[in-house]
């Protein structure tokens, strides 16, 4: 599992005089944030009777040793293909989180919802289509058509969120600027299938018939 094998978890709930199984909300943070950033939202949901959970995604929060840990991991994935730090490795953590939550005596395993913002929205989306235990899914500004963005030259916003990675790829590919070819090659290396079989038009349908709300703006 390596240094990223331990998953830091923040779990909030009310203390009930009579123990009972409760629904769960898993809330996932955006790029360069951490689970504690979500604490006000977790407290609000917990006050309404939910068990609320957040984790640090790979190379964030307690799993980061410096401010550049996440970008360094992305660059390593581009150069060496040794990890999948953008989406897939955190999705694996969310599958293991599903294992833990389903085994807890205070959790209703049929009512585990998942949401997240931006990068966290992508993690929620991908976790939900591979793990049916996530019964309600609400990605926030996290779902997009990666192939559509490439084909229509609309990839800039997502690429700019991790721009140092794309700058490194640009240099490696001998380009004077980040262009569609650079973006396509980066996605192929750090998240294979992101703009093909795992893209939104193909993967979102796998969530059905579970409730799904996509929030973009």
Automatic annotation (TrEMBL):
InterPro entries: AB_hydrolase_fold, Peptidase_S9_cat. This is Peptidase S9 prolyl oligopeptidase catalytic domain-containing protein. GO terms for biological process: proteolysis. Pfam families: Peptidase_S9. GO terms for molecular function: serine-type peptidase activity. Residues 45-143 form the Peptidase S9 prolyl oligopeptidase catalytic domain.
């Amino acid at each position: 599992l390596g240094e990223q094998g331990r998953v830091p978890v923040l779990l909030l709930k009310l203390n009930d005089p009579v123990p009972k199984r409760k629904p769960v909300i898993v809330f996932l943070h955006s790029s360069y944030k951490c689970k504690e950033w979500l604490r006000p939202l977790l407290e609000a949901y917990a006050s309404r009777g939910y068990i609320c959970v957040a984790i640090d995604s790979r190379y964030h929060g307690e799993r980061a040793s410096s401010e550049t840990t996440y970008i360094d991991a992305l660059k390593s994935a581009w150069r060496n293909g040794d990890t999948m730090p953008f989406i897939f490795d955190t999705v694996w953590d969310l599958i293991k989180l599903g294992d833990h939550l389903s085994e807890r005596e205070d959790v209703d395993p049929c009512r585990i919802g998942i949401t997240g913002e931006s990068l966290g929205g992508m993690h929620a989306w991908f976790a939900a289509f591979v793990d049916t235990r996530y019964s309600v899914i609400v990605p926030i500004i996290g779902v997009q058509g990666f192939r559509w963005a490439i084909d229509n030259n609309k990839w800039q916003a997502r690429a700019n969120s991790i721009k140092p990675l794309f700058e490194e790829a640009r240099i490696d590919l001998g380009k004077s600027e980040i262009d569609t070819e650079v973006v396509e090659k980066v996605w192929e290396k750090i998240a294979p299938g992101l703009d093909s079989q795992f893209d939104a038009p193909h993967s979102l349908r796998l969530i059905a018939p579970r409730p799904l709300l996509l929030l973009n703006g």
